[in-house]
TrEMBL record:
Region spans: Disordered: 1-34
A GO MF term: microtubule binding
Name of this protein: MAP1A protein
GO cellular component, one term: cytosol
Polar residues bias: start-end ranges: 20-31
One of the protein's GO biological processes: regulation of microtubule depolymerization
Gene from which the chain derives: Map1a_0
PANTHER family: MICROTUBULE-ASSOCIATED PROTEIN (PTHR13843), MICROTUBULE-ASSOCIATED PROTEIN 1A (PTHR13843:SF6)
Length: 153
């Protein structure tokens, strides 16, 4: 608490986030500050941030957030949602897990980007134990089934 207080007084435009000084005035979606080292987080279901936009999701997200299921909800080609770069980041991040856990990707919309990515990287997906559901798939969770496009948080 004292360190945070000193930091705020000595650097009024900066604050500490996870022990790292940040500049809230920065418009950059990705920080140039190093990500703190720590163990990965394992979850059952993760929503890929910002409708799978490349604005703030990179391979580091997939290295650190290891999910059995990732939801891709983007359906806005004008804004790059979903982003091919983010889907490729999943492959890159998962390739560095060191363990071949099953991962299921759940796109909630049928988009040209996800179809092309699926077709062009299918061999790599199989190698990494990644299964991609069709957007019209039904998901069963906690004894309840519903269309994949209905996943909400």
């Amino acid at each position: 608490e004292d360190e945070l207080s000193r930091s705020s007084h000595s650097n009024p435009g900066k604050s500490l986030v996870n022990g790292i000084k940040t500049n809230p005035a920065s418009n950059s979606p990705k920080s140039s500050f190093p990500v703190p080292v720590g163990p990965p987080v394992y979850v059952d279901l993760a929503y890929i941030p910002n409708h799978c936009s490349g604005k703030n999701t990179d391979p580091e997200f997939f290295k650190r957030v290891r999910a059995s299921y990732y939801v891709v909800s983007g359906n806005d080609a004008v804004n790059g949602e979903p982003s091919r770069a983010v889907l490729d980041a999943l492959l890159e991040g998962k390739s560095q897990w060191g363990e071949n856990l099953q991962v299921t990707l759940i796109p909630t919309h049928d988009t040209e980007v996800t179809r092309e990515w699926y077709q062009q990287t299918h061999e790599k997906q199989q190698e990494l134990n990644i299964m991609v559901l069709a957007s019209s798939s039904t998901v069963v969770m906690q004894d309840e089934s519903f269309p994949a496009c209905k996943i909400e948080f």
